[in-house]
Design brief:
- Helices cover about 65% and strands about 5% of the residues.
- The chain is mainly alpha-helical and about 160 residues long.
- The chain has a domain of about 80 residues: Arc Repressor Mutant, subunit A (Orthogonal Bundle).
- The longest helix has 26 residues.
- The radius of gyration is 21 Å and the shape is elongated.
Length: about 160
């Protein structure tokens, strides 16, 4: 959201507004906080633009991420997909039902325990994914700068380092 200039009129609209505590302003200058804010802003911009591109082709980001996971990682249970994508199992189940209805995925009983079905792409799902994926990657390339390998490694460590 754009920051409004601090004018008398804007301050009158929200009478509770006051200058941030100087100690809080100081917290915002920490290198890690600056990194977080830069990453968050970049993520929001890139995600929004990628989602618009997928939406224009009839796909949501969630639907695409499930297809991407199954295409590159092979069969997965709903719970494994939800863990990998960091979303609720209910969300994944809803999308899997739609993907099943559309004939893009199928359920198999090939799991080790036999309790949870594994989902995999159908031939139609593979064909659809392979038609959308190159355009998606073109959008990614147009939005993302080329990062040094060391930066990518540092960013890749965040999820692993956060699991205390």
């Amino acid at each position: 959201m754009p920051k409004l200039p601090k004018t008398k009129k804007n301050i009158e609209v929200c009478e509770r507004f006051k200058e941030p505590k100087s100690s809080f302003v100081q917290l915002m200058t920490a290198p890690q906080v600056k990194s977080w804010r830069a990453l968050l802003g970049a993520f929001q911009y890139v995600f929004s633009n990628l989602e618009k591109g997928l939406t224009s082709e009839g796909y949501s980001m969630s639907r695409f991420q499930i297809l991407l996971t199954l295409y590159f990682d092979g069969p997965h249970s709903a719970i494994n997909i939800s863990r990998k994508l960091l979303v609720t199992r209910g969300n994944v189940s809803t999308f899997l039902k739609r993907l099943l209805a559309d004939g893009l995925v199928e359920a198999s009983d090939r799991s080790k325990s036999g309790k949870r079905p594994l989902f995999c792409l159908t031939d139609k799902g593979i064909e659809i994914f392979e038609s959308v994926f190159p355009r998606h990657i073109d959008r990614v390339k147009s939005l993302m700068p080329k990062l040094d390998a060391s930066v990518i490694e540092t960013l890749s460590q965040i999820p692993r380092d956060s699991k205390n």
